[in-house]
From TrEMBL:
The chain crosses the membrane at residues 6-22, 29-45, 51-73, 85-104, 124-145, 166-187, 193-217. It comes from the Bacteria. GO terms for molecular function: transmembrane transporter activity. Belongs to the vitamin uptake transporter (VUT/ECF) (TC 2.A.88) family. Q precursor transporter subfamily. This is Probable queuosine precursor transporter. It is a multi-pass membrane protein.
Length: 230
């Protein structure tokens, strides 16, 4: 159960980090979190672990928290700012991928000891980044659209959980299917690939449910003018 303990700890730390960034820097803090989440997720996803008896990739938690950030932006500031956050994440993944591809082209010095590890992680990055970019853009824009739809159908603070969960859960399903197909189909045996598909969505589903209380905290801070907007 050690992996599961670390997973829960990582989950809590991610949510706390988002709320801290939002409380201290307001909307800017959420814009800052987006590139952090997508870059860290694209690195962590190269590592496979066993969670709850199934094989899974890391990166699911931190990536899923980007949906909480865009939902907070949609709820408090509107879809325009959410879409801006998505484009920032899109830009950050592209730049990171290009920069690291250039970095591994340099001939290492005799004293270097990280080249092989960098090639292992970032040599596979273009395929991961491509899958991540396609899945990220489609799923996040769907999330923004769905959030606004539920906001119109079920307005008010009491139904905040509904638009937060329902929009994210469907968007996470789209993201999981698109990303795992592009990034990992043919890389692993089919039995492992299906486990990754299942666990990727299952873990993201759990994150979507768990982030609801933090959404309400953000809403309460905003209503009580406790957010520093730079």
């Amino acid at each position: 159960m050690l992996n599961e303990m670390w997973w829960v700890l990582m989950l809590v730390l991610n949510f706390v980090a988002i709320l801290f960034a939002y409380r201290v820097w307001g909307k800017l803090g959420l814009f800052i979190w987006i590139p952090i989440s997508v870059i860290v997720a694209n690195i962590q996803v190269t590592k496979n672990v066993n969670l709850f008896g199934l094989e899974a990739t890391l990166g699911n938690i931190v990536y899923s928290t980007s949906f909480l950030a865009t939902d907070i932006l949609s709820e408090m500031y509107g879809p325009k700012d959410s879409k801006k956050a998505v484009t920032i994440g899109f830009f950050s993944v592209i730049v990171m991928t290009i920069m690291m591809q250039l970095a591994i082209q340099f001939n290492p010095a005799p004293s270097d000891f990280v080249q092989e590890s960098m090639e292992t992680i970032f040599g596979f990055m273009p395929r991961i980044a491509f899958g991540s970019i396609i899945a990220y853009v489609i799923s996040n824009f769907h999330d923004i659209w769905a959030f606004e739809l539920w906001k119109k159908l079920k307005p008010g603070k009491k139904t905040l959980w509904m638009r937060n969960c329902f929009s994210t859960m469907v968007s996470q399903l789209l993201d999981s299917l698109i990303f795992t197909f592009i990034a990992f189909f043919g890389v692993y045996e089919m039995s492992v690939w299906w486990q990754i598909v299942l666990t990727t969505y299952l873990l993201k589903f759990i994150v979507a449910v768990c982030d609801t209380p933090f959404m309400y905290i953000a809403r309460k801070w905003f209503d009580n003018n406790k957010i520093c907007e730079g």
